Amino acid sequence: MKPLRLSLLILGFFSLLCSTSGDSSGIKRMKMQFATGYKRVFEEYTQALYQRYPDIRIEGENYLPIPMYRHVASFLSMFKLLVIGVIIIGKDPFALFGMQPPAFWEWGQGNKIYACMMVFFFSNMIENQLLSTGAFEITLNDVPVWSKLESGHLPSMQQLVQILDNEMKMNVHMNSRPHHHS
């Protein structure tokens, strides 16, 4: 049992040393928030940046739409399942309100498979539109450095490298300046 404790203590000590002995340039963390369609772009950028800057920590996460859109999409998803269930069961929901069923309901009862498919695909189209942000936002040490929402396009790899190089030069310059105390 003692060798296990000793090896864990040594491992903890070395991991602490490795985590504190890092790059003093100030760049520690890059965060990329992206829409689901840009996951592959994120992975390509991450791989290229790790080759050029092995000490940088890159995080990626999904860029969420505003809460109202998420709630509407969630409601629509549940409502879609309810409508499909009512179509399959064949119960006329308009009778509950004392109304005559409209022509599209009559058609849906005669063509249940098509009606269910139409409800499913139309609802999914609206849900995807609500949840799609088209975002690819990049922050460096919690400071925004690129926004696809503002610029209208993704940064090229050259632009991203230039942003990082400029940030590193600025941080090295700031770290090399003497500090004066009054």
What does this structure look like?
It is a single chain. By secondary structure, the chain is an alpha+beta fold. The chain has 2 domains: 27-63 and 134-173, Glutaredoxin; 67-131, no CATH class. Helix content is 59%, strand content 12%.
CATH class of the largest domain: Alpha Beta
Whole-angstrom Rg: 27 Å
If you consult CATH, what is the topology of the largest domain?
Answer: Glutaredoxin
Low-confidence stretches: 4-25
Q: In sequence order, what are the helices and strands, one letter per element? A: HEHEHHHEEHH
Which key features would you list for this structure?
single chain, 182 residues, alpha+beta, Glutaredoxin, 2 domains, 4-stranded mixed β-sheet, 7 helices, 4 strands, 59% helix, rod-shaped
Q: What is the topological layout?
A:
Layout: H1 2-20, E1 29-34, H2 39-52, E2 57-62, H3 67-89, H4 103-110, H5 112-131, E3 136-140, E4 143-147, H6 148-151, H7 157-176
Helix pairs in contact: 3-5, 4-5
Explain briefly what this protein structure is:
The protein has 182 residues and is of the alpha+beta class.
